[in-house]
Specification:
The structure is a single chain. The protein is α/β, with parallel strands linked by helices. About 40% of the residues lie in helices and about 15% in strands. The strands form two sheets. An eight-stranded parallel β-sheet has the order 3-4-5-6-7-8-9-10. The radius of gyration is 19 Å and the shape is globular.
Length: about 325
């Protein structure tokens, strides 16, 4: 098994990675470091609920310090992740200038349900924890029924105050986005952060967002490591002299999605980022595009219905949940 180590060349490639232009003209790094389950496992995370998740062996401070040393400059954070204060410590200790970082965070369902003052207080906490006076992107984590539009408008107010540079959404079905867009908002979402990988490539939804100028951030880009033995991926990886993780990452980048791998191991952080020195053929891209099954789409639909009310007073119910959404 190849062991990857950070080099001056790999750092330079990450620090100077390609950018994707957002609809407001801001340049968004094409790759970032995801901090979910880094040093902390949220109590309502599905694996934690199922008893499948062990206690973290390293702190978020240590992991993010490694990621920054590898050259990552875009950090993907969230209230729900429960580790922003540790992320902030790593940033402070790194000595990296604030203007050289791109920080994204998300407000959680419980705060969204509580309303404007709670959202404002949470943003202030996030800014304090991360050690910054502004956030580059701030997202609605889930489209909480009956609450997410009001929450977004609160974020618009905070943007006008200079605390947020750009606004976005996460886990929005096309119908949630249209509901928001038709609610007299001033600043259309710049991004939608959704699960995207060859095994959940919802092309109709993706194309609709891209056509409307919304950049897509991909989480679970590496399928949580559950696709590393897939025959198609292994064959393509072998033909390029790359790892399966690098093929998944390259597929994401080549489609124009923001790629957000995560790992608590420094060698993996380096490995995951080595995606800018090769290209997949059109035939390989088509093969990977076709790996999505109806079963995986149904799992997505089930998760969506479960999570829009997650941790709120309506947790476990379908109260307000959109039952007819664009699935693919």
């Amino acid at each position: 098994m190849t062991t990857f180590a950070a080099t001056e060349a790999s750092r330079a490639t990450l620090i100077n990675c390609p950018n994707i232009a957002l609809s407001d003209g801001v340049l968004h790094p094409a790759i970032g470091f995801g901090t979910y389950k880094v040093g902390f496992i949220p109590a309502s995370a599905s694996a934690a609920v199922a008893g499948e998740e062990s206690e973290p062996q390293r702190t978020a401070r240590e992991c993010v310090a490694d990621a920054l040393d590898c050259g990552y400059r875009f950090l993907e954070c969230a209230e729900f992740y429960g580790n922003e204060v540790e992320v902030g410590k790593a940033i402070a200790e790194s000595g990296i200038k604030r203007e050289d970082l791109f920080l994204c965070s998300k407000v959680w369902t419980t705060t969204i349900e509580k309303g404007p003052e709670a959202i404002r207080a949470q943003l202030e906490k996030t800014l304090s924890d991360l050690g910054t006076t502004y956030i580059d992107l701030y997202l609605i984590h889930w489209p909480v029924p009956g609450k997410h539009v009001e929450a977004y408008k609160t974020l618009e107010t905070l943007k006008k105050e200079g605390k947020i540079k750009g606004l976005g959404v996460s886990n929005y079905a096309l119908e949630d986005y249209l509901e928001l867009k038709e609610s007299s908002i001033e600043f259309p979402p710049l991004v939608n952060q959704i699960e995207i990988n060859p095994f959940l490539y919802r092309k109709n939804t993706i194309d609709a967002f891209l056509k409307d100028g919304v950049v897509l951030q991909s989480y679970r880009s590496l399928r949580d490591g559950k696709a590393m033995d897939d025959a198609t991926l292994l064959q393509i990886a072998e033909s390029h002299g790359k790892t399966v993780a690098q093929i998944l990452g390259r597929w994401c980048v080549q489609h124009g999605f923001v790629y957000m791998p995560k790992s608590v191991k420094k060698g993996r952080m380096v490995e995951n980022a080595l995606v800018f020195d090769f290209e997949l053929t059109s035939e390989e891209m088509e093969k990977l595009d076709s790996l999505t099954t109806q079963e995986n789409i149904q799992k997505y639909v089930d998760l969506y219905r479960k999570c829009v009310n997650r941790d709120t007073s309506k947790d476990g119910s379908m109260d307000g949940v959109k039952m007819a959404i664009t699935e693919d």
